[in-house]
TrEMBL record:
Keywords: Aminotransferase, Pyridoxal phosphate, Transferase. This is GDP-perosamine synthase. It catalyses: GDP-alpha-D-perosamine + 2-oxoglutarate = GDP-4-dehydro-alpha-D-rhamnose + L-glutamate. PANTHER family: DTDP-4-AMINO-4,6-DIDEOXYGALACTOSE TRANSAMINASE, TRANSAMINASE. Belongs to the DegT/DnrJ/EryC1 family. The lineage of its organism: Bacteria, Pseudomonadati, Planctomycetota, Planctomycetia, Pirellulales.
Length: 386
């Protein structure tokens, strides 16, 4: 029976009619090639909703992160302090700049960078006169890091923050939107993010010179001249006008998408939250998460099955779920990097599971997930189904 059920994805794209209209408008206007009026409009509209002066549309979130490091003039061998619990793109961007990631553990309250460890690390480095070139803070699973503390710590040491808000568009902290906390902040419109352009990213900042320089570097660093003149190495990182048109339509429904993901989270919590050993990713006071992905941890001893058994049971029913990010310091590609702490993110990886959370998911879809997860818990008496 379950084998024939359609595949339920972790976070499938969710398009509406406005996206289609705008895409066709771009198509019919023949503004297909990189740049065009939809790119300009998308940048303006995006800057407004993220509370920033400038937005630069690029080909991916990873490209946006890489540009940030260039804008800060990060040099080969520089240290960049970042979160270990993240998607690999964060760490890869640091490698593109030939800089060295220094990974930090998460805290229990936000699952993001532990401010106490950051304070210790920057104090230690300050005494040794080797402060990092930047701190790249990640907002995982739709929730901001604790910028109340992190911003203060970085200010004390005069170290710039790059905010990797790829997973947190639509979230806020004390009423301030995700993406407003870094000198430079980045978003992603990859296929599984809360809104998508199929692929794309955005860099936001209040610094006009940086925004101009980002556009310059992202278009092969072409100097003003009738011939093609280049004085530095650039990239082909700009977003196409077609994709920007889709992005403009998606941006209009962002608030609905956040509400729907939070609703999905609420139903999971209601139906699974009482099971022994289950704990959801916390949302401390002042934090407003998008619940981009519903993430929980399973204490195998109390639940009666471990995270992997639950994931495999879901897979058997054709349902995609995913372990919480495997920390970067545990990845072979980054095994040589410095790691500060690690107990928290290692446990989150061992016990953590992300459940299907796409905003286009139906209640019946979600019921399928809930039923399987409950069936794995030894405290649940199996119900005889017809
Ligand atoms: C998705 C993601 C990125 C990269 O975005 P792309 O658009 O896929 O390049 C960067 N950081 C984090 C934390 C992400 O989840």
């Amino acid at each position: 029976m379950t084998a024939s059920s359609p595949r339920l994805y972790l976070s499938a794209p969710h398009m509406g009619s406005r996206e289609r209209e705008l895409l066709l408008d771009a198509f019919d206007s023949n503004w297909i090639a990189p740049l065009g009026p939809h790119v300009d409009a998308f940048e303006r509209e995006f800057a407004a909703i993220s509370g920033r002066q400038h937005a630069v549309a690029v080909s991916s979130g990873t490209a946006a992160l890489h540009l940030c490091l260039r804008l800060l003039d990060v040099q080969p061998g520089d240290d960049i302090v970042t979160s270990s619990l993240t998607f690999v793109a964060t760490a890869n961007s640091i490698r593109y700049a030939n800089a060295k990631p220094v990974f930090l553990d998460s805290d229990e309250e936000t699952w993001n960078m532990d401010p106490a460890l950051l304070a210790e690390e920057l104090d230690r480095r300050s005494r040794q006169n080797r402060l990092p070139a930047a701190v790249m803070v990640v907002d995982v699973n739709g929730q901001c890091a604790n910028y109340t503390r992190i911003s203060e710590i970085c200010e004390t040491h005069n170290v710039p923050i790059i905010e990797d808000a790829a997973e947190s568009l639509g979230a806020s902290l004390n009423g301030k939107p995700a993406g407003s906390f870094g000198e430079l902040s980045c978003f992603s419109f990859n296929g599984n993010k809360i809104i998508t352009t199929s692929g794309g990213g955005m860099l936001v900042t209040d610094n006009e010179a940086w925004a101009k320089q980002a556009r310059y570097l992202a278009t092969q660093a072409r100097d003003p001249a009738p011939h093609y003149e280049h004085s530095v190495t650039g990239y082909n990182y700009r977003m196409s006008n077609l994709l920007a048109a889709i992005g403009r339509g998606q941006l209009q429904v962002l608030a609905d998408r956040v509400d729907r993901r939070r609703e999905i989270f609420a139903l999971y919590r209601e139906t699974l939250g009482e099971l022994p050993g289950v704990q959801f990713m916390p949302e401390p006071d002042g934090f407003h998460s998008t619940r981009w992905l519903t993430a929980l941890t399973i204490d195998a001893g109390r639940f009666g099955a471990d995270r992997e058994q639950v994931r495999l049971a879901l897979e058997e029913a054709n349902i995609e779920s995913r372990p919480v990010w495997k920390p970067m310091h545990m990845q072979p590609a980054f095994a040589d990097c410095e790691m500060i702490g690690g107990k928290v993110c290692e446990r989150l990886f061992r016990d953590g599971l992300c459940l299907p959370s796409g905003s286009s998911m139906s209640q019946a879809d979600q019921d399928r997930v809930i039923k399987i997860v409950r069936s794995q818990c030894s405290a649940v008496t199996p119900t005889i189904s017809a």
